[in-house]
Amino acid sequence: MRAYLFLICPVLLFLGGSYLLPFLGIMQLSFTDPEPGLGQYSHVLSDPLTLSVIWRTLRICVIVTAVSVAAAYIITLLWVRGRPLVRSLTELCIMIPFWISVLSRAFGWMSMLSNRGLLNTWLKDLGLIETSLQLTRNEFAVIIGMSHYLIPFAVFPLATAMRNVDERVLTAADGMGASRLRIFWQVFLPMTASGIIGATLLVFVFSVGFFVTPALLGGGQSVLIAELIYLWIFQIPQWGMAAAMSVILMLAVGGILVLLMRRYGEMAK
Amino acid sequence: MKSEAIVANTTQIEARSVGKKFGKFHALRDISLEIAEGEFLSLLGPSGSGKTTFLTLLGGYENTTSGQLFLEGQDMTGWTANQRGFGMVFQGYALFPHLTVAENIAFPLKVQKRSKAQIADRVAQMVEMVGLSGHENKKPKALSGGQQQRVALARALAYEPKVLLLDEPFSALDKNLRGQMQEELRRLHRELGTTFVFVTHDQEEALALSSRIAIFNHGELQQVGTPDDVYERPANRFTAEFLGDINILSLDGTSGVAGTPIKLPGNAAGLGHLAVRPEHMRLAAEGDANQLPVRLRDRVYLGSKSRLLLETQAGEELMLYLDNGAGPAAPQTGAELRVAWDVQDSFAV
Ligand SMILES: Nc1ncnc2c1ncn2[C@@H]1O[C@H](COP(=O)(O)OP(=O)(O)OP(=O)(O)O)[C@@H](O)[C@H]1O
Ligand SMILES: [Mg+2]
């Protein structure tokens, strides 16, 4: 037993060095820069502009999580329970995005949605619109771009849950005369609830720290927390504020995690 | 007990030359069988003999690859499980893991759109019937195997299906609980008059519960009959050996066994073996017609009786039971003895 503990020491050292120390640094910064005290926190939590960023981040992340998990549920359904051809095609669609960088994907959406992008051009050519629709540099674009990036991550916990569903339980429900709709809503969906919670956790935590996509597709119009922290570090250096914001973000995410995990634990019982 | 098994003689389900292939593999071949309304039919056979497959074909959970199925004279071959509406207790129960005991039992009732009050009544009644009062609000995971079993039974019976299909419902239970549940099932069958088709590995269970037994082997139906039919008059060697213990003797072609002349039963023509149940074989007394010389190999003491393991002169093994009460002293191992039986208790296979 002792020997094993000894063997995991390098990992502990590495994690401590790469996470704990910087974190302690940030904690210190958040209470001391520019002046000691809780000033940074009270500023972050009272400045209307900062609050609006927090509020927007929360809103967008909730929407993105809902959209991603719902879309991923349908995709996973096709992947796990579809006909063989549907399965392979879906698998391809799930895997390909993993090979394309987040930057290229954001640019892809920009060329698709921008004022002189593909979508607007087509709509104009078809005579459906006169002037370009404003599809980028707003929350809509941010939500689309973020969801598109996060969907594949939601697929895996969902797939695990769906594969664990005992086929005979569905067969039994069918034998009792239940319609397909009822079997889905009252049997299959609740039986995959653990996967939904897992996917929600994963996507939400990822989305909160998102930087590239909102920065590009939001075009500075819908700044999220990650971008605000970036601004406070590189553009208008206020490291203490950036640090306080980071700590708040971490606590918020941690709190949500604990809450959902507890719910998850109850489900597993 | 036999008198309880009175069965209305109307055919409810009929299988006509039903076959099932999985790819190239014949899981079932040419099964023809009639099931009467209200009967308790057991499907018995070794593992992999096609019992579950036949049950799922009856229930409409799988499609037949040949032959036809009829329900009350109507061709139901193409009907889905949903349309047939038989109840089924699956091997492994298939309870809804996210629902409580009460919700599990209520599920099929909600499907039937019964009123809330009716559902509550029926659920309470079923919970009571299978002895699960006090467990209504537990999830299946919090129940023992036997309790889950009973939930599955209650759920399948709750909506009063015409036919109940049961796939080894007692396989997970220990001996005591098993006996208790068998009693329960017999009672339910008597009270409800539902047709039961019951799959089991356990021959004693089949003999004790059924009005008729269908014996399967390698996807083929070997014999169908009442318990004493299949036990006393097995149609072939497989059935004879599968059900209970049996002594098999090779016939030597000159109406005898290893040179000793023997009276053969009527069906012996063309068959090579003679079968006698151990309980029909005895140590020979003066004047017994069929006598065969044997040597005592071993004697196993079983309390009220002993099991004698014997060997014929041709080297075939026999077995018989000897009462340990008053009587001549038990023979010693190695003793030369003679066994006897009545012709009508023997059959050729
Ligand atoms: N879906 C399937 N695909 C391929 N082969 C199958 C399938 N279902 C059953 N079989 C085969 O059909 C044969 C009969 O299976 P079945 O499950 O009916 O046996 P059983 O009599 O119920 O056995 P047990 O007593 O072990 O439950 C087996 O050899 C099995 O491997
Ligand atoms: Mg089986």
Task: Characterise this structure.
With 269 residues, chain A is mainly α. Helix content of chain A is 79%, strand content 0%. Chain A has helices spanning 2-7, 9-32, 39-44, 48-81, 84-95, 102-113, 118-125, 139-163, 167-175, 180-191, 193-208, 212-218, 225-235, 239-268. By secondary structure, chain B is of the alpha+beta class. Chain B has two domains: 11-238, 3-Layer(aba) Sandwich (Rossmann fold); 248-348, Nucleic acid-binding proteins (OB fold (Dihydrolipoamide Acetyltransferase, E2P)). Chain B contains nine helices and 20 strands. Chain B has a six-stranded mixed β-sheet, sandwiched between helices. A five-stranded antiparallel β-sheet of chain B has the order 15-19-16-17-18, with no helix packed on it. In chain B, strands 2-1-4-5 form a four-stranded antiparallel β-sheet, covered by helices on one side. The model of chain B is unreliable at 1-7 (pLDDT under 50). Classes of the chains: A mainly alpha (269), B alpha+beta (349). The structure holds adenosine-5'-triphosphate and magnesium ion (MG). Magnesium ion is lined by residues 51-52, 91, 167 of chain B.
CATH topology group of chain A? MetI-like fold
Helix content of chain B: 25-40%
Q: Can you tell me the CATH superfamily of the largest domain in chain B?
A: P-loop containing nucleotide triphosphate hydrolases
Distinct helical segment count of chain B: 9
Mean pLDDT over the residues of chain B: 88
Strand order of the largest sheet of chain B: 6-7-8-3-9-10
Radius of gyration of chain B, in Å, reads 24 Å
Q: Please count the helical segments of chain A.
A: 14
- CATH class placement of chain A: Mainly Alpha
Question: How does the overall form of chain B come out from the CA principal axes?
Answer: elongated
CATH architecture descriptor name of the largest domain in chain B: 3-Layer(aba) Sandwich
Subcellular location (chain A): Cell membrane
Keywords (chain A): Cell membrane, Membrane, Transmembrane, Transmembrane helix, Transport
Membrane topology (chain A): Multi-pass membrane protein
Family (chain A): Belongs to the binding-protein-dependent transport system permease family. CysTW subfamily.
